Amino acid sequence: MSINIHPAIAAIDPYVPGRLAEDVEREFGIVPATKLASNENALGPSPSALATMQNMKDSLNRYPDGTGNALRKALAQQYKVEIGQVILGNGSDELISLLVKVSISPGDDAITATPSFSIYDKAVRAGLGNIISLPLTNYAYDLSAMHKAITPRTKVLFICNPNNPTGTIVNTKQLCSLLHKIPKHILVVLDEAYAEYVTDPNYPDSITLQTKGHSLIVLRTFSKIYGLAGLRIGYAIAPLNLADAMNKVRMPFNTNTLAQNAALAALNDIDHINASNDNNQRGKLLLYKTFDELSLPFIPSEANFIYFDTKKNGKTVFEALLRFGVIVRHIDGSMLRVTIGLPEENEKFILALRTIIQNPSPVHTNGVR
Which of 178, 185, 165 is nearest to 109 (CA)? Predict the structure, then answer.
């Protein structure tokens, strides 16, 4: 049977996630493989979240709270917004799709940057809109260029802050300048998946900016610093009318019982958040030092990953690292992105990278255990 697929949908390439550790273990016979490809929290889930999930097993025959009221209430209190402004999603990905559904009509434009999070492109094109991807300037979003690219068809601006894969940020001055220049009907989407890792004091207080009347939606997730990537739960803080519209097209029970309750527990686990940031800072400094020693250019990061230049064929280096049981992410050309891991994971990556970079023809064996 031949099914007609809309040409715009047929043209979309599926998202390709990072390699699974078990696949690399099976292919190369290396146990354990070290996954530093998907920006997951190396410390794992919040202990409070794990304890909460243990207590939920007797309620899993019941549907979850379709509104996620307890978690939304806690988030509203934390950010000092109305509970109606908070909407939960099956990860940030679902929230991106929901906001595209309610803000983009066929033929409308959305503007973002490249390289950045690829789901913006996929979601807009799936909604039959047009995506305009501008090159980064100095590995960061160029908000002046985004402003200049606005046309009467522009409806949404996507800004990943910190940006994935470069780890750079848009600061308060840059964001405020953009918000005061653009037409009020244009929605600015601030994707702040890695916000909890940021140490730069010039990082924008996006929620405050939203309360000042700007057309702004803020996306956050429990997948990164909270260590709940496998539960798929994120949230948005939006103007009331936008949140209401997104709820109209949101599928019922889109976030599950375990995810809601684990996220609520993780939100208040300050010890886990502090430990995660401490591990991230220590690992970041170690990897910076290594890249300097190997004369490999890198971009200072405000997230839990580092974007660096291998000065070689990036795909070849990526594949060589796999043979050492180390999984990173090949972005483009000579560039790789590595997630900051536990100390022993960082050391394994460093030893493998040194071998590959310093030896023009490294032996492709199960070299680093």
Answer: 185
| pTM for this model (two decimals) | 0.94
Please tell me whether residues 41 and 52 are part of one structural domain.
Answer: no
Tokens of 213: 């009347």
What are the CA-CA distances from residue 44 to residues 49, 132, 152, 219, 323 (Å)? 10, 36, 45, 22, 25
CATH number, position 21: 3.90.1150.10
Greatest CA separation found in the chain? 59
SS3 34: strand
Give the Cα separation of 369 and 364 in Å (integer).
Answer: 13
* Of the residues 267, 288, 304, the one at which a domain ends: 267
CB 257 within 8 A of CB 59: yes
Same domain, residue pair 21 and 124: no
The answer to whether residue 89 scores a pLDDT higher than 70 is: yes
From residue 255, alpha-carbon distances to 69, 92, 241 in Å are: 11, 12, 21
Pairwise CA distance, residues 167 & 199, whole Å? 12
What dihedral angle (degrees, nearest 10) is formed by the CA atoms of 307, 313, 319, 323? -100
Region 308-324 average pLDDT: 96
Q: Which domain holds residue 285?
A: 7-45+271-358
pLDDT digits (tens, 9 = 90+) for 177-234: 999 999 999 999 999 999 999 999 999 999 999 888 889 999 999 999 999 999 999 9
Question: How many domains is the chain built from?
Answer: 2
